[in-house]
Each structure stands twice: as C-alpha cells, then as structure tokens.
Specification:
single chain; mainly alpha; 257 residues; 82% helix
Length: 257
Amino acid sequence: MMPDFLLLACAAFLAGLVDAVVGGGGLIQIPVLFAAFPSTAPATLLGTSKLAGIFGTAAAALNYARQVRIAWSTAAPAAVAAFVLAFAGAYTVTKIPPDFVRALLPLVLVGVALYTFRKKDFGSIHAPRHNGRKEQAIALAIGACIGFYDGFFGPGTGSFLVFLFVRFFGFDFLSASAVAKVVNVACNFSALMWFGYSGHLLWQLGLLMAVCQVGGSLLGTRLAIKHGSGFVRKLFLFVVTALIVKTSYDAVVRWQG
C-alpha cells in the first residue's frame, strides 16, 4: 500500500507542476489513481482528484497574482460563468453519457495543436484586444462553455482555457495561463461541491495529494515566470500532443469494446 501512496504523491506533484503552467495535470494524476484503486467507484476517484487539484490550482493562481498582472476584467466574469456551468455539466453527465464528446475530443485537440504550431508568434506577444462589455461578453462565453465541458467531461480543461485566452484576447501564454488558473479554481470548486455532496471523496488521500500538488504548482509557476511565454508554449504543445494520444487511445478502446 505504501508504494501506491508514494506513486500517487509523485503523480500529484508532477500534475501540479504541469497544471500550473499549461493545464492538463489530470492526464498524469487520474490514470495513477485509477491504477492504484481499481475497485473504487470512478466518481470517487474523480472527486478525490478534484480535491487535490483545487489546492494546487489555487496555489498557482496566488503565485501568478503576486508576479504577473492578471486581467481580472476577463478572469472574473469567466470564473463566475465557469462556476455555474461546471455544476450544470456535472449534473448533465449523470443524465447523458459523454460518448459524443469523447469521440470528438481528439479531433478538436489536433486542431488546437496545428493552429498553435503553424502560428510561430502565437502567444508570444501580450496585446489585449478587447475591453468593456465586449471583453466581459467573450469572457462569459468562454467561461460558460469550458465550465460546462469541465463538469461534463473534463480532460484538457486548463489547456483549452489557455488556448482560448491567447486566441480571443491576444494574451501571451504566460498571462493566459495566469487567467486560466483563476477560472480553473472556479471549475474545480463547483465540481468539488457536487462530489462532496454526493459523498464521492477520499478525504485523507485527497488532502495528502493536495500537499504534493501545491509543491508542484509553486515550482511550475516559478518555471513559467522565469522562462516566459516561449517555455509555456513548448510545454503547451507537448501536453496537447499527449492529450491527443491519450484521448485517441481511449476512444479506440471504447469503440472496440
């Protein structure tokens, strides 16, 4: 049992590090949880992962706020919309299986990767495009869509947020990642309320992993701030590629089964 906890602690640390920079930490943490507790209900493992994740994401958000100017006029409305719609997404997934989203996700991720790879200057310059009501409206739309997706399915939420904030607001990758952390906290808190209410949480394990997530998050934000948007862009492409491989494999296995 002790080797499993050690493995989970390492996975949580790495997940916190990657998630703090570009999102996608669940790609590391969730498979290890499922491997360590094969007989535990999936909802309980997802809830436990969210419990660990919210501490790591909050630590990253605070660390960014100290050293990077967060565009709160974008982050706040997006976070509010994400909070409400993440709860709606979590409710919806209990009624409708997310099979269509699971099958479509690899294609969407390929599009994201190709767009980012082809535009070499994408996310390298911080040049915000919107303000006022237009900024708030776009932020609400992004927060609502990604919040619902996070509650309904989830993989790659942080990476999608980073991409959309760069694409639609003209942020550089570093600033987009900082804003994405704020929205991610709202998503995680909303989902955690649902999992806690329904009793799908392993509190002791989740809090142990949370400590490791915070450590990874603090290191991740320091690396991102030190090395800048170029480093974040490279890690973003790596994580999106890994997500493409993982989600494609899952879709093939499900189709064959």
